[in-house]
TrEMBL record:
<dbReference type="GO" id="GO:0098609">
    <property type="term" value="P:cell-cell adhesion"/>
</dbReference>
<feature type="domain" description="PDZ">
    <location>
        <begin position="13"/>
        <end position="100"/>
    </location>
</feature>
<keyword id="KW-0496">Mitochondrion</keyword>
<keyword id="KW-0472">Membrane</keyword>
<dbReference type="GO" id="GO:0005741">
    <property type="term" value="C:mitochondrial outer membrane"/>
</dbReference>
<dbReference type="InterPro" id="IPR050614">
    <property type="entry name" value="Synaptic_Scaffolding_LAP-MAGUK"/>
</dbReference>
<dbReference type="InterPro" id="IPR001478">
    <property type="entry name" value="PDZ"/>
</dbReference>
<comment type="subunit">
    <text>Binds (via the PDZ domain) to isoform 2A of SYNJ2 (via the unique motif in the C-terminus). Interacts (via C-terminus) with RALBP1. Interacts (via PDZ domain) with ACVR2A (via C-terminus) and ACVR2B (via C-terminus). Forms a ternary complex with ACVR2A and RALBP1. Interacts with MAPK12. Interacts with DLL1; enhances DLL1 protein stability, and promotes notch signaling in endothelial cells.</text>
</comment>
<keyword id="KW-1000">Mitochondrion outer membrane</keyword>
<feature type="transmembrane region" description="Helical">
    <location>
        <begin position="118"/>
        <end position="138"/>
    </location>
</feature>
<dbReference type="GO" id="GO:0016323">
    <property type="term" value="C:basolateral plasma membrane"/>
</dbReference>
<dbReference type="GO" id="GO:0097120">
    <property type="term" value="P:receptor localization to synapse"/>
</dbReference>
<protein>
    <recommendedName>
        <fullName>Synaptojanin-2-binding protein</fullName>
    </recommendedName>
</protein>
<dbReference type="GO" id="GO:0030054">
    <property type="term" value="C:cell junction"/>
</dbReference>
<dbReference type="InterPro" id="IPR036034">
    <property type="entry name" value="PDZ_sf"/>
</dbReference>
<dbReference type="Pfam" id="PF00595">
    <property type="entry name" value="PDZ"/>
</dbReference>
<keyword id="KW-1133">Transmembrane helix</keyword>
C-alpha cells in the first residue's frame, strides 16, 4: 500500500461559519509538503476547541480535506490551499474523508480491538504471575 487513505473511507460534507478566530483548525500537507507518503492531500493537524470546527465537533484531527467550496485540494501546494482558505468567505463547505480508525494493512476493526504482541505478552506474564501466587497460597494452606 502506498500510505494514502483507503478510498472506502467515509466522506462527509461539513459547513462551517467562520468565527472571530477563523475556522479554528490547522492543516498540513500539499503537493510540496506531503504529510502522508505518496499523497499530496491536505490533512487536519489541530482543532482549536473554541474555534468554529471545535464547537461544531465533526471535523477531527487526521481527517483529509478533499475540497473547500467545491475547489478540489488534491495536487495543490500547501500555500495555495492556505490562500484558498483565507479567501473562502464567511461560510465554507468542506468535503472531508474521515480518518481511518483501523490499520492500513487490511484490518477492518478499530485500533482498540488490536493489541501489539508486546502488550499481549505483558498481559500473559501478569496472568501467569497471578496464577503462580494463587497456587503458592493454595499449597501453603494445604
Amino acid at each position: 500500500m502506498n500510505g494514502s487513505l483507503d478510498t472506502s473511507s467515509k466522506v462527509e460534507t461539513i459547513r462551517l461559519k467562520r468565527g472571530p478566530a477563523g475556522l479554528g483548525f490547522n492543516i498540513v500537507g500539499g503537493l510540496d509538503q506531503q504529510y502522508v507518503y505518496n499523497d499530496s492531500g491536505i490533512y487536519v493537524s489541530k482543532i482549536k476547541e473554541d474555534g468554529a470546527a471545535g464547537q461544531d465537533g465533526r471535523l477531527q484531527e487526521g481527517d483529509k480535506i478533499l475540497s473547500i467550496n467545491g475547489a478540489v485540494l488534491e495536487g495543490r501546494t500547501h500555500k495555495a490551499v492556505v490562500d484558498l482558505f483565507r479567501t473562502a468567505g464567511e461560510e465554507v463547505e468542506l468535503h472531508i474523508q474521515k480518518k481511518e480508525s483501523h490499520h492500513m494493512n487490511g484490518s477492518t476493526g478499530s485500533e482498540s480491538e488490536h493489541q501489539s504482541p508486546a502488550s499481549i505478552l505483558g498481559l500473559l506474564a501478569v496472568l501467569t504471575g497471578a496464577a503462580a501466587i494463587l497456587f503458592y497460597i493454595y499449597r501453603r494452606r494445604a
